[in-house]
Fold:
Amino acid sequence: MSEPRLAVVVASVNGFPYLGDCLDSLARTAPWTEVIVADSTDEATRARVRESWPTARLLSFDAPTTIPELRAAGIAAAIAPYVALIEDHCVVRNGWAELLVRLHEEGHAVVGGPIDNAIDDRVRDWAAFFCEYSAYLEPGPSGPALGLPGMNVSYDRTAVAAIADLLAEGRWETWLHARLLERGFELWADPALVIDHAKDFDLREFLSQRYHYSRSYAGMRNPDLGWKRALYVLASPLLPPLLYVRIAGNVLRAGGRAKALVMATPLVFLYLVVWTYGEAIGYTFGGGRSLLEVR
Structure:
């Protein structure tokens, strides 16, 4: 049997039922891929993976491990020439894996696509989704892009080599993709590479997630900012309206979700205030342990 052309690394931090739905979608749509589950939850989760998805390679982390570190470990363990990154709350669609391989074989080193919302019954579901993924809404662009989502992206080995040091440092895709663009790589977006975001955040959980992500992000930026950190803190009250305008622009350009945005706007603003507060704390005091809390 020939070696698989594509490895799919699943960063597992939420456990079941999300991980089960993710692995079922891979088994159903792309059983030929090299699936690597990098898990930092618990032994009960890992036992279920071993029993129900025995062909998946399981990397177990008992110590607290961040999502970027899980991704890096999965990439390092992969054998296939192309490595895609998703997370345990992602559900992949028919043809997704085959299209990734085809685009890589056509010469694209880095490819990715949009995110669709699969949990959309409540206003809070849309508010969380808009805050996280408005820049990557379906249908999405086609061709060279300035950014790709960290949980729907695939790299060939030349791209992996170019970001190896950043992977080892546990950096988010913001840093990875900036490096790749700096070194002349093209980020290629294809609107057919859609995956579904299928996680239900309750209000308290997502408030916590916005705080911890934004604090960890700011803390990661601090070494590059120096004294400019103070300016970011002072300007933080301006961020909620500016971020909302960006989110609204993304949603309106994508089309079809204006009503959901209107309904979600009060909650989106609450999340953006917490987002801004987290960044101000991160720029002032550093990231602390927030990166370990991001799910």
Remarks:
- DSSP finds twelve helices and eleven strands in the chain.
- The mean pLDDT is 96.
